[in-house]
Write a structure and sequence with these properties.
With 604 residues, the protein is mainly α. The protein is built from 19 helices and two strands. It has two domains: 123 residues, no CATH class; 446 residues, Growth Hormone, Chain: A (Up-down Bundle). Strands 1-2 form a two-stranded antiparallel sheet. A hairpin with a 7-residue loop joins β1 and β2. The protein is elongated and about 125 Å long.
Length: 604
């Protein structure tokens, strides 16, 4: 009512309707000499919706002047909150590059962890398959337990240095002090191997004699070794999770632009690929130069090849982390600014569990990590055990995977704009399926041409893995949206599903290893075992991811459809209400006019 009184244009009759008794139009502003109009001014109608404002263009304030509407706000009805459109700020190349350096240390460590840990425990330390799987499972469980806790604490932390960068620095220190100790022999253990350059796990898988897992002398009990290696691994995993969560949760805070977020994820994955390439190139060079002294197979005498690579990883990782901290400025670094920025942009943790989109994205991310990590873990063992290749293949195979993945990341931003995230993810799944079928039909190469040809499967795996990993990370960023205050918590939960699923999968696979009931690391059944693992486990994960992608597409379609219906219903209701009020007002005015005409006729 007050808003209508404040706007004189709404108090007057509609244009073109006000008439005199003879039907001619009259001026609504009578002059002093003219008789008063017969028609009283129409009283303002009582609308429960308040005043109606124009959807576009300008807003008329109380003083009658016209002011332009703010470009970032669109109002259809007074009382309905306007929604700010995501900002389109672009990050500088320097800031993007500095951000890309922030996860290099983690990437270098993860490359060795997933690609060579089982191989190192099997061939160099000659630890039983089951116990090797248990050690890796302990690390994954520690990582899984750390990620949601660190994510929650990272969101709650207030630091002048920046809450994300603070946890990144803490994690970097933890990784640096622990990484070397599980890439070297136990400092006070004896392995019980009399010939450190002797037969390894892969050289005699088809012979009648095998390498003895325990050697010719008794060594330190296996449970002592498991405890020894578990301590630095747990420290490492807590630090690794701290770096990962803090780095990922920076993406929604650095920019709200979706394309910029995809670009940051692509840069992040490109840095991952470059890091992995560096590890594989170093391993290839060391195996080609220093490895010849111990033969064509990976044996206990190659321990310093892995230990030296670990030292190089620590040095390079610390340097890249320094570049990240020097070149990345975290928005809202002070506590007050953090509170101001997070105000209205943070969800209570339990509300995430009420969102069906959260579960669909979590399944997609978990399956993506299963496909990428398990292929990375078992391809070296597949190459040396199933296909009987030289030990330098453990560097060549992963190297080809990450080169093809790096090339694919250069095209992802373009394809996301053209066909959207979901279709890009499905194309990545199709490439994965092609690589798995190739693994299944691949036979032992008989010449150099066949050996080169078999790496075509790793090209498909690399391209598909890069596609689905970058796209799934972008889906997580979309899920968080403007709720950047909960970003670390969400990434922590996503990583929790990743670590637990990968750890359980590897532990189960190692427990089912056909050579566990022998005294040997490898037996003839290894050849088919790793082929089956590479085909069926990532293949099953890809099918589950495909189902989750379909469910996510349905959820988003229904959500957009419901919003559109609600908006149409609101607009229709508003138009109908306005029309009814106008008709009622016109009818009232006509009745008053007829009554006045009747009174005049009686008087006359």
């Amino acid at each position: 009512m007050d808003s209508l009184k404040a706007n004189p244009s709404l108090n007057s009759p509609p244009p073109g309707y006000t008439e005199s008794l003879d039907g001619s139009s009259i001026d609504s502003k009578p002059t002093p000499t003219s008789p008063p109009p017969l028609l009283p001014s129409r009283p303002p109608s009582k609308s429960r919706y308040g005043s109606v404002e124009p959807r576009y263009g300008s807003v008329e304030p109380k003083n009658g002047s016209v002011e332009p509407m703010e470009p970032h706000r669109v109002n259809s009805v007074q009382g309905v909150d306007s929604v700010p459109v995501a900002s389109h700020q672009h990050l500088s190349i320097v800031r993007k590059g500095a951000y890309g350096f922030g996860h290099v240390f983690n990437d270098l460590c993860a490359s060795m962890w997933f690609t060579y840990l089982l191989l190192f425990f099997h061939a160099v330390l000659q630890i039983d398959n089951t116990y090797a799987g248990i050690i890796l499972l302990i690390g994954q469980v520690a990582d899984a337990a750390a990620t949601p806790v660190i994510g929650f604490l990272c969101d709650k932390t207030r630091s002048r240095y920046g809450r994300r960068k603070t946890w990144h620095l803490v994690g970097t220190i933890m990784v640096a002090i622990s990484f070397f100790f599980f890439w070297h022999n136990c400092l006070f253990c004896t392995n019980g191997v009399s010939n450190p350059n002797g037969t390894n796990l892969s050289s005699n898988c088809n012979d009648n004699t095998y390498s003895d897992n325990a050697g010719n002398t008794e060594g330190t009990p296996i449970h002592i070794k498991v405890i020894y290696f578990s301590i630095p691994i747990i420290i490492f995993q807590f630090g690794w999770a701290s770096v990962q969560i803090s780095h990922l949760s920076l993406i929604p805070e650095l920019t709200e632009n979706e394309n910029e977020r995809v670009g940051l994820n692509a840069i992040r994955y490109s840095a991952t690929i470059v890091s992995n390439l560096s590890v594989f190139v170093v391993m290839f060079v060391l195996l080609e130069t220093l490895g010849h002294s111990t033969g064509d197979d990976v044996v206990p005498g190659d321990v310093w090849i892995f230990s030296g690579t670990a030292l190089g990883v620590i040095a390079a990782g610390c340097f890249c982390s320094l570049l990240f901290h020097a070149g990345t400025r975290e928005p809202s670094t002070s506590a007050e600014q953090n509170d101001e920025k997070s105000n209205g942009k943070k969800l209570a943790f339990y509300k995430w569990f009420l969102n069906p989109q959260f579960y669909a994205v979590a399944v997609i991310y978990m399956c993506t990590r299963l496909m990428v990590n398990l292929t990375q873990v078992y391809i070296p063992l597949y190459l040396v055990d199933s296909l009987k290749l030289n030990k330098n293949s453990v560097a060549i195979g992963p190297l080809v995977i990450y080169v093809s993945g790096f090339l694919m990341t250069l095209l992802l931003k373009f394809f996301n704009k053209i066909i959207g995230r979901y279709m890009v993810y499905f194309i990545g799944l199709a490439l994965i399926w092609g690589g798995l079928v190739w693994f299944w039909v691949q036979s032992v190469p008989q010449n150099i041409v066949e050996e080169v040809f078999l790496y075509g499967s790793t090209v498909l795996i690399g391209g598909g893995g890069a596609t689905i990993l970058v796209t799934s990370l972008s889906m997580v960023a979309d899920l968080i949206g403007p709720a950047v205050g909960s970003g670390a918590f969400v990434y922590g939960l996503m990583s929790f599903t990743d670590k637990i699923s990968n750890g359980i999968a590897v532990a189960v696979i190692q427990a089912l290893h056909p050579c566990n009931h022998t005294e040997h690391v490898c037996c003839p059944k290894c050849q088919s075992f790793y082929r089956h693992v590479l085909v069926f486990v990532p293949g099953g994960a890809s099918l589950l991811a495909c189902v989750a992608l379909a469910v996510l597409s349905l959820i988003m379609f229904l959500r957009v459809s419901n919003k559109s219906k609600a908006m149409c219903t609101r607009r229709t209701s508003l138009v109908v209400t306005a029309k009814d009020e106008l008709d009622h007002s016109i009818s009232s005015d006509r009745n008053e006019t007829e009554q006045l005409i009747g009174k005049n006729n009686i008087v006359s």
